[in-house]
Write a structure and sequence with these properties.
Trs120_TRAPPC9_N, six-stranded mixed beta sheet, TPR_TRAPPC9_Trs120, alpha/beta, golgi apparatus, 13% strand, Trs120_TRAPPC9, two-stranded antiparallel ribbon, globular, 463 residues
């Protein structure tokens, strides 16, 4: 499972932002914050970088109103075994970030960046951005190949304008790469598999069925790339074909995936339009998505791999789409169903993400006590895992739901980087103090022995 999923997630292009060379943590964060301003690139802004080498397969591309959507992943991410099934899970571009004053040797920078890119076979575009180069680096940079782009020293506003131009160029490059992929997929008969397929023992009859399913899966994947390319009408046409072919071959899992994509295409195509029937259509289709994910469950694979996480993600996506007070009952039903399914999830990390998302949605809905209950579930799961990322997630949700349990927190970081965190809690269940203390201990990188918890719930951490 993945955090912060929504119906529109299928249209987001993942771009890994990777630090290259020596770069202070805060400097990296500052650079990363500049990228966040460019998560949406209008198609109308990339025409000067775009070259149509052959007639585009995206025949209904909305050049005036459409856009490409980026999702930046700081530090990158390992490849997902489900990338064939949902193309938006792939890292489709890699951007290296280099702080030139601490990396004087550009040859070493390029060598390190090339090595990093080898770990992202799915990336269609790679660029390395060097910030604040000196004069000699600027002079030398032009000889290092087109993937190295240097940003001359300038104020923040100028740097952001330069970055905007670079992101427009990357958007155009990605669009042209998507066109190439679609042409290849239509002609090459690409074989697409998921872990559900690899677990099945294929009889001769199953092999024949797999060949028949290939066409439907290819159409679904082409629809994915149309969606990533910002062309929802083209995406919907391919999804419609995929739905028909998947239905004929009883390929329920891919049917559900194509139906999910069609909902995303529908929303993007009608963005900005007030259509009272749209919500009912989204609800109807997503209920079908959930139903077909249920149908794709294979009992003999249940202990090793399961489509359950996709079913629960669909619950969360629909709940997030409907999440407002007047539809509270529907949202609560979806979140309750997702919580019930958590018991059957194979991966404990999936369960953790699920509880975090349920808590967030209950908090958004205004159901603070329910949100706090699932925060407690997060804390319990966290204590079973030695994971600082899990601690951060738990504490973020806890901060959102403090009112429900009258928890007040304050944190200070001294000049010598010693971390002192105090939490004063009034909750009748004493174990809450222990769980919060445990979260803070690992978050601060301390051992349990270096923490003191008194009976009032006051926790002090020592480095």
């Amino acid at each position: 499972m993945e955090p912060d999923v929504s119906v529109e997630t299928s249209a987001m292009i993942r771009i890994a932002i990777i630090p290259i060379g020596k770069i202070p943590h805060q400097t990296l964060r500052d650079y990363y914050s500049m990228f966040l301003h460019h998560h949406t690139i209008p198609l109308s802004s990339i025409s000067s970088f775009y070259t149509e080498e052959q007639k585009s397969p995206f025949t209904n591309q909305p050049w005036e109103t459409g856009s490409l959507r980026f999702k930046f992943v700081l530090g990158g991410a390992p490849p997902s075994p489900w990338e064939d099934f949902q193309s938006n899970r792939k890292i489709l571009a890699v951007i290296g970030v280099c702080h030139c004053p601490l990396s004087p040797d550009l040859d070493s920078v390029i060598e390190e960046f090339d090595g990093v890119c080898k770990g992202y076979a799915s990336a269609r575009v790679t660029r390395c951005f060097g910030f604040f180069p000196c004069d000699s680096q600027l002079e030398d940079g032009g000889k290092k190949g087109e993937n190295l782009r240097l940003f001359p020293p300038a104020d923040r506003q100028t740097q952001e304008m330069h970055l905007q131009t670079m992101m427009q160029e990357i958007a155009a490059s990605l669009l042209m790469e998507f066109e190439k992929y679609v042409f290849q997929a239509e002609s090459a008969g690409t074989i697409l598999k998921t872990p559900l397929d690899s677990q099945a023992s294929l009889s001769s009859e199953e092999v024949i069925k797999a060949k028949k399913r290939r066409l439907g899966r290819a159409q679904k994947t082409i629809g994915d790339y149309c969606l990533l390319a910002g062309s929802p009408v083209d995406a919907n046409a391919h999804y419609s074909t995929a739905l028909e072919l998947s239905r004929l071959t009883a390929d329920y899992f891919w049917y559900a995936g194509a139906l999910e994509g069609s909902v995303c295409a529908l929303l993007i195509d009608r963005i900005g339009l007030k259509d009272p029937s749209l919500e009912d259509e989204v609800r109807y289709r997503y209920n079908n998505v959930i139903l077909h994910y249920k149908k794709s469950f294979i009992p003999e694979n249940a202990q090793r791999v399961s489509p359950l996480s996709f079913e629960l993600e669909a619950d969360l996506k629909l709940a997030r789409y409907l999440c407002r007070r007047e539809l509270a009952k529907d949202v609560v039903d979806l979140l309750t169903s997702a919580a019930d399914g958590a018991k059957s999830l194979i991966d404990a990390t999936d369960r953790l993400i699920l509880y975090v998302e349920i808590a967030r949605l209950f908090g958004t809905l205004g159901y603070q006590r329910k949100a706090a209950f699932f925060t407690r579930q997060v804390a319990q799961l966290y204590l079973q895992q030695d994971s600082k990322l899990a601690a951060i997630s738990a504490l973020q949700v806890l901060a959102m739901t403090t009112k429900a349990y009258r928890v007040q927190s304050r944190a200070s970081i001294s000049n010598n980087s010693h971390i002192n965190v105090s939490i004063q809690a009034r909750w009748k269940i004493e174990t809450m103090h222990v769980m919060v203390a445990g979260m803070l201990v690992l978050l601060a990188g301390c051992s349990v022995e270096s923490s003191i918890v008194d009976s009032s719930g006051l926790t002090t951490l020592f480095p």
